[in-house]
Amino acid sequence: MLGSAGGNTTGLDHPALILPDADLDVHVPCDQQLTNSRLEPGGHDNKVIPPLLATRRVRLRPPSPVDLPALYAIATSDEVFWRWRYGGAIPTYEVFCSSFVAGVLTQFTVCTPSDNEILGLVVAYNADIANSTGYVAVMMHPNVLRTGIGIEAMYLFLIYLFKTWDFHKLYFEVLEYNVGHFASGIGRYFHEEGCYRDHHYYDGKRWRQYVFGLYRDEFISHPTVRRYERHLIVQADLDSKSYPGMDSMDTMSSRPVCDNMT
To answer: Structure pTM?
Structure first.
């Protein structure tokens, strides 16, 4: 879990956007490379194209009421409930449903494109539109840990957020005992913005909660992100009819992107 929707404490099971460049197995043929990325400042296109919200392995779609039982099961599973927004408390299903949209700017159910199996949720919340900031959280099913699916979902979601809103910076709230999982991303993608000392109690100890910032200009200009986003566009253009409402690209190799990541 990355971030905490609703402002409560959470942990980090699958740090997103922390992979070294070499771990993103993306190859775009030279004759298919684009001169302007959809995220590039000053980029131009002859047509307005809907945001890309799917790969061959994962799809982002608006949540529906029928998704709530599956999402509740993930949020209250043994591996997740103590890391997600409720910080160890188990809400009733009714409370979960009534608070589902509290403070949320936008969110998507993460599912498989072929059979619509629900894999998790990505959320943007506590948005400050006047100052162009917001918070991001992700919750994924334990069965997809260390598969790269969580990373794909987060990449799609962040690209969508920066394409749709003029966010200057997005925040992630991360507990101290999870920081080590994405140490390689600190300074590359994430910058420490604040620290709450002795903020969260767990297992006999009080832990710090960090707030990390992801800056728009750094994110959209990072070589890994640019290469990934260009690959999305190329594959969407080449194979856009293979599945309704999605591009059908293979964003990464079949191997896990990183051994300790989803």
So the answer is: 0.72
